[in-house]
Amino acid sequence: xxxxxxxxxxxxxxxxxxxxxxxxxxxxxxxxxxxxxxxxxxxxxxxxxxxxxxxxxxxxxxxxxxxxxxxxxxxxxxxxxxxxxxxxxxxxxxxxxxxxxxxxxxxxxxxxxxxxxxxxxxxxxxxxx
Length: 129
Description:
This protein is α/β, with parallel strands linked by helices. It has helices at 16-25, 42-50, 52-56, 81-94, 118-128, and strands at residues 28-34, 65-71, 97-104. The chain is elongated and about 50 Å long. The protein starts with 15 loop residues before the first helix and ends with a helix. The mean pLDDT is 94.
């Protein structure tokens, strides 16, 4: 609970102290990730968990726009629920406007995304911002 009380976003001196100011200054945040074991990859989850810092530190984070781009190996789109649902709830909690989601199943190997319309959907999402 020492967020922003030491001059940094977090008491731990790690990369979030570089990421937090960028998030605070941004008008929008777009999370992009593959599904790792039916969930959010740990590296991204750490950033999402640390959004606690500006909230506890009394920073106004409301009003940002948010997007999600996600792919998974399996062909069943519900495999991405472990990413989609926490991201949607995070947006709601932070009062961020969920502009859109690009959820692409059936992508495992390099260049397989080109066999989908995922890049087109991502470009369309970008235009919404």
